[in-house]
Amino acid sequence: MSTNFNAGIDSSDVVLSYGEEAQWGVLPAVQFKAIRMTAEGFREQKTRARPEEIEPRGYAQHAITQSVAAEGSLSLAFSSGTYDDMLAGLLNGDWQTPLAITSAANDIVADATLTGGGMGFSTATAGKFSTVIAGQHIKTFGFTNPANNGVFRVVRCTGTEIEVAPGSGLVDETPATGTQAIRGSVLRNGTAVHTFTFQKQLASALFLLYKGAYVSEGSLSAQQGNFMEGSLSFLVKDETKAVTNQSTGAVVPATAGRVIDTVDGVKEIIVNDQPVAAVTQGIEINITKNNARAQYGIGSASAKGMARGTLEISGTMSTYFLDFTMYDLYKAETDQLIVFEAVDNTGAGYVICLPAATLMNPQIVAGGPDSDVLAEFELEGNAGTGVYADVVMQITKIPAAAA
Asked: For the whole model, what pTM was predicted?
């Protein structure tokens, strides 16, 4: 077998891993997790300047370093469970403790007429549903009638009743056998700051560390003819080198599930709890933290802190032009609840929700002969009201099975 055949390091051998920091910019004493990616762009760059002194020698003065900026980027093929920590960092939020609601003596009932109104699920056990959050999505398992198993949006909840969105098609059922379960974990935008240390392993004794990494922007995209993909950008405190693995123990391998596809994985787009009638070509959501920035001070070329920035949601949605239904929503300038489900081949994945998105500036054009007329709308994400007060984006993680 030949050795030393490469002139340098092959990108296929690079392993990127991370650990969440307890204190910004301080290497965490944790076991790092490897992360999947299609490309990365972690690097450091110095800003230098030359004093413009008046002198007769005919050459410029020696340059001095003013600051050292580090940054990072990840291009992603989206898969379930791989980027949950990064999503929390992107939205400055925290994941809800996963629901673990399971029937005891078959006491979870599918109820088409709840006592509090609407349809949903009920129980005789006080407080059984107390951990469910109004507005989140849930996934149910174990009912005999297939209509009662699936993903539902919660519009109201008490300790004993979960009301789901109208039109969900629930059928009255008090199961006689089996185990019924309700699962899900919700993430909403907030003000919690999550930072990370990234480790780029280039060879067995060649490592680059990027401490104080703060997610400054990101995107999620599902386009026909492609898989679900995304990107993340980071502001970083500094870049340092190491000759040994800085993880506490071996790096945890990355998840191995399939990438989410846009044929079976990304479900129809739901607007105000109704499927969009027009055929959808794609949807993209951009998450930007305006004015997020590294903070510098005298005595250090590296950043001394991070400014959190202001979260802003935007995006686009493209459909074949069918009628004026979506166009009328644009004209009305009313906030729309936009939801879509993205799961892998096992059924594990996410429900993406924009509680109050305004459709703006449609492009409905004939671009050339024998071409399809598409309607591409800009999405303007806003904070919702009621159960979505202060929520501009929500992601619910759903499992493949109840176990």
From this structure: 0.94
> Two tokens at 241?
């080198």
Per residue in 125-179, pLDDT (tens digit) is: 999 999 999 999 999 999 999 999 999 999 999 999 999 998 888 999 999 888 9
Residues of the chain with pLDDT under 70: 1-5, 7
pLDDT confidence of residue 2? 62
Query: Residue 116 has what pLDDT?
Result: 87
Q: Which helix (H) or strand (E) holds 262?
A: none
Q: Which residues contact 95 (CB under 8 A, 6 or more apart)?
A: 84, 88, 185, 186, 187, 397
Amino acid identity, residue 147?
A
Kindly write down the DSSP assignment for every residue of 121-185, as one continuous string: EEESSTTTTTT--TT-EEEEE--SSGGGSEEEEEEEE-SSEEEE-TT-----B--SSS--EEE-E
Give kind and range of the element (H or E) at residue 25. Answer: none
Where b means 16+ CB within 10 Å and e means fewer, 227-239 reads bbbbbbbbbbbbb
Nearest-5° Cα angle at 241, 236 to 242: 125
Residue 367 Cα to chain centre, angstroms = 33
The token duo for 223 is 């386009």
Look up residue 382 and give its two tokens.
């806003």
